[in-house]
């Protein structure tokens, strides 16, 4: 079972008493408070909560795009800044963010160019990751020639190109319609199974969080706190119709209860 796999995994991300306060012209904004969490190697952890609860802020803190003002946060035993320098993770944003003047292959190889990989190594890695996200044969296309779902897959390929062990994803499918989103959820699970990466995934969707995750982290309204951490008991193989099973529905119900409980912190 997934629960057993994650409990055996080595820690990759650790947060101890993490808080983050933004100073603004209107006074301090407390985005995170007393966040404690350990993410094991190979976990697929989803963060869910209402808008403004700090789930994206926490993901950005892991990526050293924001800096906690309290507590301790480590990635592979290092500070997030050092982990970024060590290229410990790939980051996928809500918008695909592809450069329209570059081909899909050109977009995917951009981080490899910056890192100084040889031309031969760039080509080899681009072909490998395009295959992983089912975009073989699309390398010479431009972003405008691809559907929204295909563009987001290209964005995932770019994040995978330098083969970091951690993949951080900030609502990557939030702007897509339900049919495309379902398909990409299935493809992401297959990708995760093939690569064994540790994934942190921000979402507003309860079914998406339950379907994808080994663990679901439920967060309260601002200041963001963790109200529940739910270990999934679903099998590793997950067809879409697993969402109709009593076990899936029970986990989704617990997520909803955690979201409701979080409002007591207001």
Automatic annotation (TrEMBL):
Query: Which PROSITE patterns did the record assign?
Result: ABC_TRANSPORTER_1, ABC_TRANSPORTER_2
- The UniProt record lists the keyword Transport: yes
Pfam hit, one? ABC_tran
Q: What's the domain of life for this entry?
A: Bacteria
ATP-binding: present as a keyword of the record?
A: yes
Question: What keywords is this UniProt entry annotated with?
Answer: ATP-binding, Nucleotide-binding, Transport
Residues in ABC transporter domain copies: 13-246
GO MF entry, a single one: ATP binding
Q: Which family does it belong to?
A: Belongs to the ABC transporter superfamily.
Protein known as: Sulfonate ABC transporter ATP-binding protein
Question: Which species is this UniProt entry from?
Answer: Phaeovulum veldkampii DSM 11550
Query: Species lineage, top-down?
Result: Bacteria, Pseudomonadati, Pseudomonadota, Alphaproteobacteria, Rhodobacterales
């Amino acid at each position: 079972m997934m629960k057993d796999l994650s409990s055996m995994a080595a820690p990759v991300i650790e947060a101890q008493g993490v808080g983050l306060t933004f100073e603004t012209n209107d006074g301090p904004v407390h985005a995170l408070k007393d966040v404690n969490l350990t993410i094991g190697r190979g976990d697929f952890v989803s963060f869910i909560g209402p808008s403004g609860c700090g789930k994206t802020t926490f993901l950005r803190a892991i990526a050293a795009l924001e800096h906690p003002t309290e507590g301790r946060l480590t990635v592979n035993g290092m500070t997030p800044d050092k982990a970024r320098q060590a290229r410990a993770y790939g980051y996928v944003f809500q918008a695909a963010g592809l450069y329209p003047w570059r081909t899909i292959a050109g977009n995917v190889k951009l981080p490899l160019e910056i890192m100084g990989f040889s031309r031969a190594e760039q080509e080899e890695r681009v072909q490998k990751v395009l295959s992983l996200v089912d975009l073989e044969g699309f390398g010479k296309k431009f972003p405008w020639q691809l559907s929204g779902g295909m563009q987001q897959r290209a964005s995932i390929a770019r994040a995978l190109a330098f083969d970091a062990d951690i993949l951080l994803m900030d609502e990557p499918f939030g702007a897509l319609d339900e049919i495309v989103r379902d398909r990409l959820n299935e493809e992401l699970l297959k990708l995760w199974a093939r690569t064994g990466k540790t994934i942190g995934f921000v979402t507003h969707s309860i079914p998406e969080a339950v379907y994808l995750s080994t663990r679901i982290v439920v967060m309260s309204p601002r200041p963001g706190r963790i109200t529940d951490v739910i270990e999934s008991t679903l099998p590793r193989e997950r067809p879409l119709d697993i969402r109709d099973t009593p076990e899936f529905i029970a986990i989704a119900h617990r997520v909803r209860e955690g979201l409701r409980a979080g409002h007591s912190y207001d």
